[in-house]
Amino acid sequence: MLWSFISRTRGRNRFDLTDWLTWGYLIFGMLLMFGPVLWVAMSSFKTDAALSEYPPSFLPLATQTAMVKGYDKPLPLYEITAGEHKGSVLAQIRRIGLNAQMVDPAHPDEKINVKIGDRQPKRELTFAWDNYSKLFKRFNFMRYFWNSVFITVVATVITVLFNSMAAFALAKYKFRGRMVVFLLIIATLMIPPTINLVPIYLVVNELGLVNTPWAVIWPAVATPTGVFLLRQYMLTIPDDLLDAARMDHASEWRVYWRIVLPLAAPAIAVLVIFSVMWRWNEFLWPLIVLNRSEQFTLQLALNAFQGDLQTSWSGLLAMTILTLLPITIVFAILQKNITAGIAQSGVK
Amino acid sequence: MLKPLNTAAQLGYRTAFGLFELPMATAQKLIGIKRIAWMFLLPNLLIFGLFTFLPIILNFFYATSGGDAILLAHRPYVGTENFASLLSCTDYLDPNTCRRDVFWRAVYNTGWFVVLQVGFMVAFSLLTALILNRDIPWRGFFRSVFFYPVLLSPVVVALIWKWILQRYGLFNAGLEDVGLSSVDWLTDANWAFFWIIFVSIWAHMGFYTLILLAGLQAIPADVYEAAEMDGASRWRVFSKITMPLLMPTMIVVLVLSLIRAVQAFDEIFVLTGGGPGSATTLILQYIYETGFASRPQLFGLAAAASILMAVVLLVLTLLQLRVTRGQAEN
């Protein structure tokens, strides 16, 4: 059943070489694209001890330990694979050269010598949830998360509002200077903000916005992409609908928000997806204008942690996973809309 | 469950927009229906003016002034000195002979990066798009597989690969497993350069695959059927039908990826920090470090460097316009 489904080919019945190559490529691609993320997800559940193990294991395994009477610290448990104690589980006290001094947890008084080659650490699947919980306790994770959410949501709302207003004016009115304004906006598509970093910083600085979320929000809300996308869509809304509302003495503002905006919902959805993606992932500009750690977005906090030698990989990996989780969930739900939107508009 | 939420959302929407009803209606009475369009354009144009048009002009003032003050009034005019300093080299092929040697290293690194990253990425995107265009089951799923990394933030992408490529990471363990020796991937200059290209292809190829796939699906099926009737070989169909018809999409992909590659920064900055030394420092990182990360902040030099980068981007964009126009005429 499954095989006939997989081997379905266009008009041909034979499963030939190109089909083998296709499936080989697809499976290799899947491993290459998902594998690294999965590996980091698994690693994020490992304890610090398991993280420093080499070669690493895929699953988060940890050596079991036991409290033995007469010893202060928990001792690691080993399974004996050869010799006279084969099959029993012993706790290790210390290593002396090629031998290990071990003890049976049931008889703590009797010390046993075992060759180190004759024992295997007893390991089991342990999820170190602690990696995640300590993010909330020690790393102020919620602060960064909130900063990112605030910037993303507010910037997206303003972007949609401003861009749709401009798009409405450009699509539904004939006034002198319309073409000039439209061309001016389109021309800025060719001027990426990266070439104006210094003067934009001056403007933001003069407005007193440095080290506030508004320094990240304002400079990029007037996206030419958004205006263009919405204008093209609004051109398809028939003018008769607008004129009918005007007959009923609706003001132009009312025409905009009661008729045009709801009808442009599909295009607005695309813009919302883009805006959320841009803002959640933005890095260089926040790096320049947000210097105080309490203002950091998630991306900045992640970057700061990885540069800080004090932080361990365990916290960093857990934070990486928490940062990619919201986008992953949104993608899993909306993947059709996202890929279709991008394929149609050709922007990212 | 959803109904009250929906009602609340509608109420919020009506209140928010209703608030502007009176001022906008008054404005309409005062300036007339013809000019109300400008009211709608105002917020957007204000932001554009403040954060796009004004900075373009200011950039030239910064590029022609010196010192480390951010306020233009406190900056002495130096003419073309910033440009002269950036461009002064005894031998342009050897960055060590240049006054701003890091700038020239960054220029050469960016050049190599752009050529290799764009070249390989477009090739792999095309291959992937061609495969996804075949009649395979779960096509939507596989399309998402290749697209997924595009959504990840650059910092996350860099950290994922940093974890895999570290000295005691998965990749080295795999190599030792098959009997090879492990390598410090990100501290060896050549390997670090290889990995920044690899990682940025990994992170972005899904986007271009998607655009190329859309281009492939726009090719009408009857063209292929006609070719099949004539008994054309697969290679002939690809080179005589698919490629020419895909060319407009291909140009868009090439130009978009070129423009993006010239401005590459985020993943590389987190992955290697531009190192070892300045082996993976690209031009945008040089601008960031000169203007913002190091003291004194040489805003003039950073602005001059970004104007030089803008010239390159402008040439690329004009090239695109020319090619697309040439195609439209054919």
Report the end-to-end length of chain A measured between terminal Cα atoms.
40 Å
* The CATH architecture of the largest domain in chain A: Orthogonal Bundle
How far the N terminus sits from the C terminus of chain B, by CA atoms, comes to: 58 Å
Per the principal axes of the C-alpha atoms, what is the gross shape of chain B?
globular
Protein name (chain A): Carbohydrate ABC transporter permease
Family (chain A): Belongs to the binding-protein-dependent transport system permease family.
Main location (chain A): membrane
Keywords (chain A): Cell membrane, Membrane, Transmembrane, Transmembrane helix, Transport
What does this protein look like?
The complex is a heterodimer of chains A (348) and B (330). Chain A has 348 residues and is α+β, with helices and mostly antiparallel strands. In chain A, 57% of the residues lie in helices and 11% in strands. Chain A contains 15 helices and 8 strands. Chain A has helices spanning 2-6, 17-43, 48-51, 130-138, 141-172, 178-187, 197-206, 214-217, 224-234, 239-247, 252-263, 265-281, 284-289, 298-307, 313-345, and strands at residues 61-63, 65-66, 75-80, 89-96, 99-104, 107-115, 119-121, 123-125. In chain A, the strands form 2 sheets. In chain A, strands 2, 3, 4, 5, 6 and 7 form a 6-stranded antiparallel beta sheet that branches. Chain A has a two-stranded antiparallel sheet with strand order 1-8. In chain A, helix 4 (130-138) crosses helix 15 and helix 14 crosses helix 15 (313-345). The longest helix of chain A is centred in the last third of the chain and has 33 residues, at 313-345. Chain B is built from 14 helices and no strands. Chain B folds into 2 domains: 22-54, no CATH class; 91-329, MetI-like fold (Orthogonal Bundle), CATH 1.10.3720. Chain B has helices at residues 2-18, 21-31, 36-63, 81-87, 101-132, 139-151, 154-165, 170-177, 189-217, 221-229, 234-262, 266-271, 283-293, 299-329. Chain B is an all-alpha fold. Chain B is globular and about 70 Å long. The longest helix of chain B has 32 residues, at 101-132. Classes of the chains: A alpha+beta (348), B mainly alpha (330). Chains A and B meet through helix 2, helix 5, helix 6, helix 7 and helix 11 of A and helix 2, helix 3, helix 5, helix 6 and helix 7 of B. Chain A: The chain crosses the membrane at residues 20-42, 144-168, 180-204, 216-234, 255-278, 313-334. Chain A: Keywords: Cell membrane, Membrane, Transmembrane, Transmembrane helix, Transport.
